[in-house]
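Quick review question:
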């Protein structure tokens, strides 16, 4: 059914679930799975010496680990995008690569937290050139505190 799957990841647990599902979707056939992690840069942070997230090396290590443990053939892409433009960059890359579907995990934020954080998945639904398959967190699982803090939300 799908010949080219784009899986967008941020290294989170939800993104790992999306990666596993992308692998399952591509298991029966000659399918290319493109794993995309958009590295956000913050042009305004240049004066302070902060142009990317300080935990970017840790995020990259988690992504490498998730890709390695998935056991399928993946092509890893690491494009850059200005802060707030991640969904647009993912959509553009899906179009450039000729993706049939975008698979992305969700963190399970809702209500005010979801509004404050924004949602790459929500924006992708409006910007993507192909269907978007949103993989929810496991039932009853809320985003771990470390992920919430990394996103700038305090409880």
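Suggested answer, residue by residue:
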């Amino acid at each position: 059914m799908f010949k080219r799957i784009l899986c967008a990841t941020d290294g989170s647990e939800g993104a790992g679930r999306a990666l596993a599902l992308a692998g399952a979707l591509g298991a029966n056939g000659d399918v290319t799975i493109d794993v995309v992690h958009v590295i956000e840069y913050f042009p305004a942070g240049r004066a302070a010496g902060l142009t990317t997230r300080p935990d970017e090396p840790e995020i990259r290590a988690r992504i490498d680990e998730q890709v390695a443990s998935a056991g399928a053939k993946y092509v890893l892409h690491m494009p850059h995008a200005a802060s707030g433009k991640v969904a647009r960059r993912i959509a553009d890359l899906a179009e450039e690569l000729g993706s049939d579907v975008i698979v992305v995990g969700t963190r399970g934020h809702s209500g005010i937290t979801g509004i404050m954080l924004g949602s790459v998945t929500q924006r992708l639904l409006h910007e993507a050139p192909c269907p978007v398959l949103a993989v929810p967190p496991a039932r009853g699982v809320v985003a771990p505190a470390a992920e919430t803090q990394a996103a700038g939300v305090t409880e």
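Why it works: Confidence is low (pLDDT under 50) at residues 113-117, 143-155. The longest strand covers residues 4-8.
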